Amino acid sequence: MQKVDLLVIGGGINGSGVARDAAGRGLKVILCEKDDLAQATSSSSTKLIHGGLRYLEFLHFKLVRESLREREILLNSMPHIIWPLRFILPHHKGLRPIWLLRLGLFIYDHIGGRKLLPSTKTINLKKHLAGIPLKDKFSVGFEYSDCWVEDSRMVVLNAIDAKNNNAEILTHTSFIGAKRRNNIWEVELINNRTKEKISIISKAIVNCAGPWVIKIIENNLKLKSDLGIRLVKGSHIVTNKIFDNEINYIFQNKDGRIIFAIPYEKDFTLIGTTDIEFHGDTDDISCSEEEKDYLINAISEYINNPLCKNDIVYSYSGVRPLFNDNKSKAQNVTRDYVIKTTDIDNKAPLVNVFGGKITTYRILAEKVLNELTPYFENLGKNWTKDSNLPGGDFNPGDFDTLLRKALNTYNFLTDNWAERIIRAYGTKIFEIYKDTENLHDLGINFGWNLTEIEVIWLIENEFVESADDILWRRSKIGLRVSIEQTQQLDKWVKNLILKKIKEKNEPTSRK
Fold first, then answer.
1. DSSP tag of 287
2. pLDDT digit string (tens) for 264-284?
3. How far apart are CA 364 and CA 358, in angstroms?
4. Which positions ≥6 away from 273 have C-beta within 8 Å?
5. How many other CB atoms are found less than 10 A from the CB of residue 63?
6. Can you tell me the distance from the alpha carbon of 262 to that of 253, in angstroms, rounded to the nearest whole number?
7. How far apart are CA 480 and CA 262, in angstroms?
8. Is 341 left (phi over 0), alpha (psi -120 to 50) or beta?
9. 66-105, pLDDT tens digit by residue?
10. What's the rounded Cα separation, in Å, for the pair 16 and 366?
11. How many beta carbons lie within 10 A of that of residue 205, not counting itself?
12. Which residues touch 103 (CB under 8 Å, ≥6 apart)?
């Protein structure tokens, strides 16, 4: 029976962040995830690293301050998958007054110790490029800074770095249950592919199961929790590109909420999000027709050329496991997190994580490890603040330099192709392509320059087991490829994995 220091339940951003931090401090770690990494909430966000401008209205100053500080730390840590954006916020007469927007943005600029990003400025929408697609009634706007993130890749890169520090990452492996016995946890897992049961002994457990956090406590561990979560569904739609410019917009709605309209994957626009109380099956989540109508109507309030449902090419939804602070409206529930630790006689700790947002995952992980410090002698110190995720070992301002180097090294790359690869892998591009000299060296092209050499890299290094893993969580190429191309890729991936498993299990021939 395998013995470990820490079992982490959940392969979303919080679980992968905790596993990475713990492994980097010298703990022997196993992370189990019932599906693929980032398959649920952590790949269903608006893809922003931000403080949460709207949270200031609810006086959540601590959360905003912490988030904005983390925004700068994460930008330095992973500049390939996080980069600055400027947002345009048009003033809508009859909603929040100009003075309130100015005050909120002033606080937003200064509360988090901003160093890398430019400050807010007022713009004349009648003269600014941002005003061209907007209705004439919008004349004043504000331009402010936040950051974009490839959310699912952030999860995967944290898991990779955890593995680099000797953590074991078990995807498609469910947590069955655990019991405290002799001051340790006796744990049962199951591989959902092979149905093989796995027994381990762990000194501690961290429950980062997100929407399933209470289910893990009550159903799997047979314990009670005095804390709870509220499940709030957020949905997004993707349309073909609706603006000729590359400007990011944030629009106020009459219900007090806001939505974003962001250029997405060069040829599309991402619009979201909704905030709806959710009581259904957390394994079956989709964007409803009502949510599509809401988002279409909200953006059409602002733009000259209204949208309709036929403009939608894709939609996605996720359930946010928000800490239940008993607020009346789903949109008002705090995005902050709560960490709760229990033990028996100062042994066998269980750390449950309630709530949280992707921007604060690193500091959340750090605080989880602080909770675990009394249970482990010689636990390493905080280390992630000044670290880089794999491929992020370059300065945020040097992306164009890295792009030129890649284009000069591999002259078969186009500009868009090279940018996609660097946005995904950063400096790892030189490990993926190695000494390749031409297109023939890359093998099969599965569509949109997703080639065999890249797919093999993903299988060997990024826990990939299906086409879906590649097309929607390691990339967003799923927006572009056909059903036939998807099926071809899925068949090829699964055949290669089966081949590798067969080779691994074959007995070594005697000499």
1. -
2. 999 999 999 999 999 999 999
3. 10
4. 46, 234, 235, 236, 259, 260
5. 21
6. 16
7. 18
8. beta
9. 999 999 999 999 999 999 999 999 999 989 999 999 999 9
10. 12
11. 21
12. none
- Rounded CA separation 296/253 (Å): 12
Q: Tell me, what DSSP letter sits at residue 35? A: S
Of 41, 63, 59, nearest to 50 by C-alpha is: 63
- Chain centre distance of CA 398: 23
Closest CA to 472 of 315, 302, 306: 315
Confidence of residue 508 (pLDDT cuts 50, 70, 90): low
Total residue length of the chain: 511
Taking the CA atoms of 96, 358, 291 and 478 in sequence, report the sign of the dihedral they define.
positive
Q: For residue 134, list its beta bridge partners.
A: 303
Angle at 507 between CA 503 and CA 511, to 5 degrees: 115
Phi, psi torsion values for 387, nearest 5 degrees: -100, 170
CB atoms within 10 A of CB 463: 22
Phi, psi of 333 (to 5 degrees): -65, 135
Distances 448 to 126, 269, 476, 489 between C-alpha atoms, Å: 39, 19, 11, 12
Whether 445 shows a pLDDT value over 80: the answer reads yes
Confidence of residue 193 (pLDDT cuts 50, 70, 90): very high
**Interval 272-325: pLDDT, tens:** 999 999 999 999 999 999 999 999 999 999 999 999 999 999 999 999 998 887
The fraction of the chain above a pLDDT of 90, given in percent, is: 90
- Give 57's strand partners: none
Angle at 53 between CA 287 and CA 313, to 5 degrees: 25
List C-alpha distances in Å: 418 to 92, 277, 410, 414, 415.
40, 41, 9, 6, 5
List, for residues 116-164, the tens digit of each pLDDT value: 899 999 999 999 999 999 999 999 999 999 999 999 999 999 999 999 9
Whole-number mean pLDDT of the chain?
A: 95
Interatomic CA distance for residues 299 and 314, integer angstroms = 16
Sign of torsion over alpha carbons 201, 207, 210, 215: positive
Q: CA triplet 27, 32, 33: central angle to 5 degrees? A: 140
Q: Does 26 score more than 70 pLDDT?
A: yes
Rounded to the nearest 10 degrees, the angle between the axes of helix 483-505 and helix 452-461 is: 50
